[in-house]
Design brief:
This protein is α/β, with parallel strands linked by helices. It has 10 helices and 20 strands. The two termini are 41 Å apart.
Length: 367
């Protein structure tokens, strides 16, 4: 199994891991993105260089929209622990099964919610959690499921226990678990994951790897929320031998833990077989609540990642504007229009500094 981007083994010393954890995970905050957008009617040109709309016009060197995910992807949340699990599990289409743990305290851009740490993403309704995980990955999760830690323990017992490769020795309930391959029952799993710990990400990765390795038959009533409990159980049961990794992160501004790029996208592409997403900036110009999440549900499956979701300068936009930031991004802008089903495509030579495409959502978008 592989629980980190290195040589596939979990074997850092406690001191090394604690130092890394102090750098990456103790400081919880929300990253503030400072974006200077210089906009003006004179700076925006229609894609044909004149007065006609540029919808569906080709670009010789534009970024092309990403293909749909080649795996069956599950956004999985396990709640009820100080550092609960937020992860993605993928199977199918001839690819090896894989899992990705999003570390505690990592900041995600959740469209409609803003920058949100993983623990707070887990408090959202299941569909919003799915949107947040999907946007972080830059590819759409086909299904989502939420499970309480106690129910995970029961599912472990249903499977006859799990064998987990633990990074260290952990005194749990009068016995010592680990290091190395260790058989664990449901109660031991719950106790291990209920502790406040700097290495919570490694504990979760080891448990998830062991749980999936047993190809568990998960009862549908073990999920507290899901869009399709049967599909979620099927993905988990089909993920035997999954390559489980921890998402690479780093600290910015001394306060916020964010994905380490380009390593994060490269890892997601490697284990799930997905292409690099197209970055998009989305502004609500209609004033309708819930626009950010609704737009994300259209854009992410089309190969986009929303890097910033905010209100426009006003809510009086009758028509959605889709602005390609440079001629090279016209194809991406046209792909966004097809995904949304509305909008006028334009080109600006004034870069946003953040995204390939800027979308100002108007009242013509109905979700």
């Amino acid at each position: 199994m592989s629980l980190g981007p290195g040589d596939g083994r979990i074997q850092p010393s406690r001191a090394e891991r604690t130092d890394a954890s102090l750098r990456r995970r103790r400081i919880y905050g929300i990253v503030a993105l400072a974006v200077i957008v210089v906009a003006g009617i004179a700076a925006i040109q229609l894609a044909d260089g004149g007065g006609g709309a540029a919808a569906d016009s080709p670009s010789a060197s534009g970024s092309s929209p990403a293909a749909s995910t080649p795996t069956d992807l599950l956004a999985l949340s396990v709640t009820g622990a100080p550092h609960a699990l937020l992860a993605a599990v993928g199977t199918g289409s001839g690819r090896p099964p894989a899992g990705l743990v999003l570390p505690p305290g990592m900041t995600l851009v959740v469209p409609g919610q803003g920058e949100t740490v993983t623990e707070d993403v887990q408090t959202l309704p299941g569909q919003s959690m799915r949107v947040g995980v999907s946007n972080a990955l830059g590819t759409w999760a086909d299904h989502y499921a939420v499970m309480d830690l106690r129910d995970l323990g029961r599912a472990v017992d249903d499977a006859g226990g799990i064998s987990a490769n633990l990074a260290d020795a952990y005194p749990i309930g009068g016995t010592v678990l680990g290091p190395g391959e260790t058989h664990m029952n449901g109660d031991q799993v719950v106790r291990l994951l209920s502790e406040q710990a700097d290495d919570a990400d490694l504990r979760w990765a080891a448990v998830l790897d062991g749980f999936l390795g047993g190809q568990p038959t998960v009862s549908r009533d073990r999920f507290t929320e899901s869009d399709d409990a049967g599909a979620a159980a099927s993905i988990l049961g089909s993920a035997g031998g999954a390559d489980v990794q921890v998402a690479p992160t780093h600290v910015v501004g001394g306060t916020a833990i964010v994905p380490q790029q380009p390593d994060f996208d490269q890892l997601v592409g490697q284990i799930f077989g997905t292409p690099k997403p197209i970055p998009a900036l989305v502004q609500n110009g209609s004033g309708e609540p819930g626009v950010g999440e609704a737009v994300a549900e259209h854009l992410i499956p089309a190969g986009f990642r929303i890097v910033l979701s905010e209100n426009a300068g006003s809510f009086d936009h009758p028509t959605t504007s889709i602005i390609a930031n440079g001629e090279e991004n016209v194809d991406a802008a046209n792909a966004a229009k097809r995904a949304l089903g509305v909008g006028d495509v334009r080109v600006t030579q004034v870069p946003s500094g953040l995204a390939d495409v800027t979308i100002v959502v108007g009242r013509d978008f109905e979700g």
